[in-house]
Design goal:
The chain has a single domain, classed as Lipocalin, CATH 2.40.128. Helix content is 13%, strand content 45%. The chain contains one helix and eight strands.
């Protein structure tokens, strides 16, 4: 009798295990890879002053690139930057190179402290990708809309 119950228990476990295998759904790894247009804003919270420029952004497998949009340039010369990134609970942007944007002749200098560097909170709840980072009085925000592949 004990053998019978043991055999039934083993069969039940195997049946349950086989039935559960179909229920396992693996989510695809998140990806930011692609081309984007958007804005980069730096705000100083205590004075409520902010500066916004239109940008062109690209995420590759592990690298990113940011340039000012020369067609809509206002007046703020953010650096053209490139770097690497990691995607986890936050997005860690690490600037490896920055320089004045060559596409805009009036941008001959830029402030590296204004670069999008550090841990950014990622919000993908809408079609626009939102990356924010607050450090002390300074809030940096990237709003990026994917560019449709052509």
């Amino acid at each position: 009798m004990k053998r019978y119950f043991g055999l039934v228990a083993v069969l039940m476990i195997l049946t349950i295990a086989a039935g559960c295998a179909d229920d396992i759904v693996l989510e695809p790894a998140p990806s930011l890879k692609g081309n984007y247009v958007g804005t980069y804003t730096i705000s100083f919270l205590s004075t409520q002053q902010s500066t916004t420029e239109d940008i062109i952004w690209q995420f590759q497998d592990q690298f990113f690139f940011m340039n000012l949009d020369s067609a809509t340039f206002k007046s703020k010369c953010f650096c053209a930057v490139s770097g690497d990134y990691t995607l986890g609970d936050n997005v860690r942007l690490r600037v490896l190179a920055s320089q004045p944007d060559d596409n805009i002749s009036s941008c001959t200098s830029c402030n590296a402290a204004e670069n999008p560097d550090g841990n950014f909170v990622l919000d993908q709840s809408t079609a626009t990708l939102r990356l924010t980072r607050q450090s002390g009085d300074t809030l940096k925000e990237l709003l990026l809309t994917p560019v449709a592949a052509q």
